[in-house]
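Lab meeting, action items carried over

1. Structure of the two-component assembly. Owner: GW. Status: complete.
Input record:
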Amino acid sequence: MARVVVDVMLKPEILDPQGQAVQRALPRLGFAGISDVRQGKRFELEVDGPVDEAALARIRELAETFLANTVIEDFTVRVEESAEEVAP
Amino acid sequence: MSTRVGVVTFPGSLDDRDAQRAVRLAGAEPVALWHRDTSLHQVDAVILPGGFSYGDYLRCGAIARFSPVMETVIEQARAGLPVLGICNGFQVLCESHLLPGALTRNDHLHFICRDQRLRVENADTAWTADYTAGQEITIPLKNGEGGYVADERTLDELEAEGRVVFRYLDGNPNGSRRDIAGVSNAAGNVVGLMPHPEHAVESLTGPGTDGLGFFTSVLKKMVAAS
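Predicted assembly:
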């Protein structure tokens, strides 16, 4: 089993009032020096079987048609290495 | 035979009964459609009502767009069936790409509920024929994600083609680009707007009866077509 992560963010030109509200709260919390915050969504997909090019292509299609609204959002797709695979 | 207007109920729809009532008051026969229906039961027009379809999860209207009933609505709308999307229904129509653009979180982040003045910019659509261009109407508005956005080129195109059907008056309630409250597709049979005409069809329970024209407009179109 492998994990594929899809990150979805509002396009840079789209106003992100949620991110702005978070950013405006930062000085009150004592965090200085953060000039902008954008808030997005992260999807973690557990995939049965190998994540080969065909599987990734299907997931990109899923991201483009459903997980992201490409009128207002950009997305990225990446495979997350599991701990066992990375360990020697 | 009376005109049949279908009103879709998704899990989480709230204003389906109000829309059915508005259809009845306008003199048509409301037909309840279920989100799992693949047939539209020979209706002459469809209304996608307000509410929170499928809990508004992922994005407002994003899951509803892939419901069995929407597969048929999308196909029929492309063939000319009149479809009106109100609030969440407007979001579903944008997610379906039957209408351009998208609805985003209100710029001030607050849910807003008030009687909203609008200008009818286009009285040639299937749902606005009983109004006159430039007419000002008041109908309720209630939404948290009602900010209409599209890229500049799309906005210019909508303006040039007269597809901005309604514009907000007396202040923009949600940060919509160019004060746009509602738009139509190129053919004018598909219309979506954020404010709720179905809540302004009786003076007892609404700010007036300015919303009734939506439901009589589509009737008139049917009679003219038959």
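2. GW to write a short summary for the group page. Key points so far: Chain B is about 25% helix and 25% strand. Chain B touches chain A at residues 58-59, 62, 66, 94-95, 100-102, 104-109, 147, 149-151, 175 (CB under 8 Å).
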